[in-house]
Design goal:
Length: about 725
């Protein structure tokens, strides 16, 4: 294949070997804005840097289409490049890079001053419509004198989005940065470490400046917390990230970060993101929310339980009745149980009795994800929302409108899939909880923990400070009962069996994809099945499966518009998943929808998320992905009639007991495992290699009175 040269911006480094400078990265073409994967030698690669890449398009046997980089040259920004980036930024919607280049080439590097003096000069730009002229004029007006500072920041390598963040946070951005270019790293949500380094380099901050070391440790702590899920990092783990540094210099840097509040150092543990304070906030809030309630008399409650059984056509066992009684006798409670143990049946009963006892009370149901909230609503016959939506999340600064000064308006709050809630979200939820609100947390402690740091649900149970009812009896014994049995076998570390709705297809990795395609009926309801895979790459990875199933369920057709973005092709009627939270549209990470319209000329994709239509006008691959096959983490909180779960040797290092347990418990009626049965049986015995390190359990035991020793007074702190 012939060589070609592309000018592209490095969006994300996927892999880097610093010994030989070999890099695999995601690039965005500066001409057509399409993303592609490039692989080759790039000395000291830098994200958000523009490169001139010479190479050729190849088909990698394992990783699919790639651009093999033969020569890479870093493109240094000049005055005209900064102006082009400025005009093609979000402040000028509809003005892409090509149009911005045309303006600069026609009017020169000082075009912004010329336009501000006389907007009519834009008429000299050939082909620039009246509408786009107005966009440029209005965009410059809105910057109202900040364009000079903006251009300086762009020359320093800051992206247009980050320029907007800085200008929204500081009155005099340039003065702040000249005093300390690392300050935004600690103060501006969404401004990262690499951007701070660009500023430091542009301002010629010395390589041995201690602020560089402090920023490195701050960044390493945050990355380590997200990678491991730990809230409190050990000194040893942090030390591993800066091997070779003198101990006294390491300790002095941590001391500076602790005193400034950037990190919290407590009992030889390092807490980023304010996680130590949030653990304390949770413990104190639980203590404040532990109080006696006026419970209905026993005889009346038993009568209402019998009425509920009759109305729902069910018969509760003694443990389920205990859960209902316990809920009405305490201010906060946990309902824990695996699939098929009747958690939803108990919740429906609780809701019915609450409505009869407290007809005027406000009841709110919520879950961590949109799909989990919809599932909870359908099963309980009650409206439900995501926790982010309930708290009115602000995307710009990762804050919530609801809180102590503006609490939630509810007297009963029921949260499903509570094992998915991380420390930050749970602390925020408790801060917004009214004092008179009863709280019920429902979950399965054997499932995967939250994506963010913490293991809140498990720590709450382990602390023994909140009443917990464990449901263990399996009730769902109809179609697919083998799935429930397999989940129990995994949990109890018994021999796994494939029966009553469970099939295991013993296949080599190279045969998995073809078998999945053979299993599919193009006319079937795509919402009733889901393929789960641990990895994105490889012959049976998420990307390969989605590409194959797109051909099965939605092949090219003359009446269906499509739009290419890098190596992906989006087509009308494609099943897609949202990868970002969009609170202003009331759709969130993990929500699934169908592409209802595509406008190839304006490059707009419209997705229908169950009646809520959202337009996506750029960065499709950053916000959307095909969803016939997704990761286990993305599927958590959802259930499907039929689930296909891939278990291949290539993904061996990612497989463990919690992940496989979570995967198989997504299936209601039929589970099809594909791959290596011996590997499955081995990995379901494997507990997480690096357990999460948290201190919430200890804090709960410190702040919350022991229910078995009510006279004990918790320590202050």
């Amino acid at each position: 294949m012939a060589e070609e040269t592309r000018t592209a911006r490095l969006d994300h480094i996927i892999f880097e070997n610093r010994d030989n400078a070999y890099v695999v990265a995601l690039f965005r073409d500066e001409d057509n804005h399409q993303t592609f994967t490039g692989a080759g030698r790039i000395p000291d690669p830098e994200e958000d840097q523009v490169y001139e890449l010479t190479g050729q398009e190849v088909q990698h046997p394992r990783f699919g289409r790639q651009f093999r980089i033969l020569v890479s040259r870093r493109q240094l920004p000049d005055e005209s490049e900064a102006v082009i980036r400025f005009l093609s930024g979000k402040g000028f919607p509809g003005i892409g890079r090509r149009t911005a280049e045309q303006i600069v080439n026609t009017l020169g590097e000082n075009c912004l001053e010329l336009i501000e003096e006389d907007p009519a000069v834009l008429r000299q730009v050939q082909g620039l419509s009246q509408g786009k002229q107005e966009v440029v004029i209005q965009g410059l007006r809105e910057y109202s004198g900040d364009s000079a500072a903006c251009l300086r920041l762009l020359e320093w390598g800051v992206s247009p989005r980050q320029v907007s963040l800085l200008q929204g946070h500081y009155d005099n951005v340039l003065r702040v940065l000249e005093e300390d270019p690392f300050r935004p790293l600690y103060e501006v949500y969404g401004f990262g470490y690499k951007s701070a380094l660009k500023l430091a380099d542009a301002l010629q901050i010395a390589g041995d400046d201690l602020r560089r070391l402090d920023a490195l440790l701050f960044n390493n702590a945050g990355q380590l917390a997200m990678q491991t899920g730990s809230t409190g990092l050990s000194m040893a783990r942090m030390w591993d990230t800066v091997q070779g540094l003198e101990p006294e210099i390491f300790e002095a840097s941590l001391d500076r970060l602790n005193k400034s509040g950037a990190l919290e150092v407590e009992n030889a543990r390092i807490y980023p993101f304010g996680l130590a304070q949030e653990e304390k906030d949770i413990a104190r809030a639980i203590a404040d929310h532990t109080y006696e309630v006026e419970a209905p008399d026993a005889e009346s409650l038993e009568a209402r339980i019998r009425e509920t059984e009759f109305a729902l056509g069910i018969s509760y066992d003694e443990r389920q009745k205990e859960a209902i009684r316990r809920f009405f006798s305490c201010s906060a409670m946990i309902l824990n149980g695996g699939p098929g143990t009747g958690k939803t049946t108990v919740v429906r009963g609780i809701l019915q009795i609450v409505r009869s006892l407290f007809p005027e009370a406000a009841i709110q149901l919520a879950a961590p994800t949109g799909r989990a909230a919809k599932r909870l609503a359908s099963l309980s016959d009650n409206s439900a929302r995501t926790i982010h939506s309930l708290l009115k999340w602000n995307l710009e600064d990762n804050s919530f409108v609801k809180g102590p000064l503006d609490p939630l308006d509810c007297q009963f709050l029921i949260i499903d899939e509570s094992s998915m809630i991380d420390t930050h979200l749970f602390a925020s939820l408790l801060m917004a909880l009214p004092q008179d609100c009863r709280l019920l947390l429902i979950g399965d402690e054997d499932q995967l923990e939250s994506v963010g740091p913490g293991k809140v649900f498990q720590d709450l149970i382990a602390s023994e400070r909140i009443p917990v009812v464990h449901l263990e009896r399996i009730w769902r014994q109809a179609e697919g009962s083998g799935i429930i049995s397999l989940a129990r076998q995994i949990r109890d570390e018994q021999t796994c069996a494939w029966e009553d709705g469970v099939r295991f297809l013993d296949l080599p990795e190279t045969g998995i994809l073809n078998r999945i395609v053979e299993e599919m009926d193009p006319q079937s309801d795509q919402d009733r099945f889901q393929v789960l895979a641990p990895m994105y790459k490889g012959p049976a990875g998420i990307e390969a499966v989605n590409e194959a199933l797109q051909q099965v369920f939605n092949p090219p057709a003359a009446n269906r518009k499509e739009l290419a973005s890098g190596q992906f092709v989006f087509r009308e009627k494609d099943k897609v998943m949202l990868l970002k939270n969009l609170p202003e549209d009331d759709v969130f990470n993990g929500d699934m929808g169908v592409i209802s319209r595509i406008d190839p000329r304006s490059r707009v994709i419209t997705v229908d998320f169950g009646g809520q239509e959202v337009d996506f006008s750029h960065d499709f691959t950053d916000q959307l992905t095909h969803a016939w096959c997704v990761s286990v983490h993305k599927a958590q909180g959802s259930e499907y009639d039929r689930v296909y779960c891939i278990v291949s040797a290539r993904s061996s290092r990612m497989l463990n007991k919690k992940l496989l347990y979570t995967a198989i418990s997504r299936a209601k009626k039929e589970l099809v495992l594909l791959g290596d049965p011996a590997l499955f049986r081995e990995k379901v015995r494997l507990k997480t290699r690096t357990p999460r390190m948290t201190t919430l359990c200890q804090r709960l035991q410190t702040y919350v009175p022991d229910p078995d020793r009510p006279e004990a007074v918790p320590e202050a702190g």
